[in-house]
Amino acid sequence: MASVARSVARIASQATPRTTAVRTTTTANARRALARQAFQPSSRRGYASGPGGGSSSTPYILGALGLAGAGGAYFYYRNGSVTQLTEGSSGESRGAFTPTKDDYQKVYNAIAQLLEEKDDYDDGSYGPVIVRLAWHCSGTYDKETGTGGSNGATMRFAPEGDHGANAGLKAARDFLEPVKQKFPWITYSDLWTLAGVCAIQEMQGPTIPWRPGRTDRDASLCTPDGRLPDGAKDQSHLRAIFGRMGFDDREIVALSGAHALGRCHTDRSGFDGPWSFSPTVVSNDYFRLLLGEKWAFRKWDGPKQYQDVTTKSLMMLPTDMALIKDGEFKKHVERYAKNDQVFFDEFKDVIVKLLELGVPFQSKAEDRMAFKPLESE
User: Fold this and answer.
1) Distance between CA atoms of residues 87 and 92, nearest Å
2) What pLDDT, on the 0 to 100 scale, is given for residue 49?
3) d(Cα 117, Cα 178) in Å, to the nearest integer?
4) Does the pLDDT of residue 284 top 90, yes or no?
5) What percentage of the chain's residues is helix, strand, coil (to nearest 5)?
6) Residue 216 DSSP symbol
7) CA–CA separation, 120 and 36 (whole Å)
8) How far does Cα 269 stand from its chain's mean position?
9) Which position has the higher pLDDT, 226 or 58?
10) What is the spatial distance between Cα 93 and Cα 273, in angstroms, rounded to a whole number?
């Protein structure tokens, strides 16, 4: 049901001519209503807050030690000792397990199946929070020191897991634990990034090439707080944060398009509400709404944020509004608002770059894999 609703919302989004003025005509208003109607029935909770944080069961696998060579043998801890993995995609096997693309496709499918089955989170999907997990575990990279990035999955530990920017991501980490237990050979670092790829594709986004090779690290390598963006800041902050990772203005705007997904929560960031009417569908609506809607400060007791004047149901952060106040950023907002394929193409490339920041791959870029969405399997 959730996937059907997302498909309808996507079709409704594409049905409107791609102009920078959105929801200013009768056709646009009809599209907005259709998107809302298609999206809301897919959720048991509608625009609800995330479920309360429950305690997760401690997995019997404490973490992968790594791999020997590109796509090499995997080992892991079990019951306090190092064990060579002997269970592969075809059941019991002898010696070291070398995963293939088919094995990673099975991991992808398991994640996609969970996304389909567990529709009791936020707006009917864990997809947006899974994308956020992949982004936050990767966005700590510092090109000057070579520290941070997705290699390590150090968000498993305090203090990184307790950083304010990571509030609420325990839900995403717990969601993926059954997959880790089913496929103990995959590292958390690879699992989290592959899950981000899966979530984007299952929410009708572009195909994201991906490759394995990340290893898990211990708590001593947790990154310091303050490496992720603060939504209350301006364009200079965005350039400082993303520039530290090695992104230019175009890439900053492309990555910001992920705000078409999900919502903010008062018990996490302090902000409140979704950015778009279809927060479980990857689209260029974030850019169209930025340009086409009128935005005003929300009158409330929370932090400074904007809301759309028309329905008062959408929100934008100060960092979002910075993208149309700054001329260099705005020209890319306009490009993406006019053409969703341009956005998809450049979003794909920048997500690949983000997920690979700082990873010492032994494979080559041409070894990246493309996974089939669940419904095409």
Assistant:
1) 5
2) 29
3) 13
4) yes
5) 45, 10, 45
6) B
7) 17
8) 16
9) 226
10) 49
Two structure tokens written together for 280: 């479980």
Minimal CA–CA distance to 194: which of 145, 137, 233? 137
Query: Using one digit for the tens of pLDDT, what is the confidence trace for 89-141?
Result: 334 344 578 999 999 999 999 999 999 999 999 999 999 999 999 999 999 99
Instruction: Check the CA dihedral 249-202-340-271 and report its sign.
Output: negative
**Is the C-alpha dihedral spanning 303, 247, 130, 373 positive or negative?**
positive
Which tokens sit at 71? 């796509």
Yes or no: say if 162 and 223 are a contact pair by the CB < 8 Å rule.
no
Q: How confident is the model at residue 146 (pLDDT cuts 50, 70, 90)?
A: very high
Q: Residues 84-88: contacts with CB within 8 Å, 24+ apart?
A: 85/184, 85/185, 87/184, 87/185, 88/185
**CB within 8 Å of 270: residues ≥ 6 apart:** 264, 302, 303
Tell me, what DSSP letter sits at residue 36?
H
Rounded Cα–Cα distance for residues 45 and 124 (Å) = 7
Q: Where are the beta strands (DSSP E) in the chain?
A: 61-68, 73-78, 81-84, 87-88, 91-92, 263-264, 273-274, 295-297, 306-308, 315-316
Q: Cα(113)–Cα(152) distance, rounded to whole angstroms?
A: 26
Its pTM surpasses 0.85: no
Q: How far apart are CA 177 and CA 57, in angstroms?
A: 9
Average pLDDT over the chain reads 83
Task: State the catalytic residues.
Answer: 136, 275
- Greater confidence (337 vs 24) lies with 337
Residue 334: the pLDDT is 98
Q: Compute the distance between CA of residue 178 and CA of residue 74 in angstroms, rounded to an integer.
A: 19
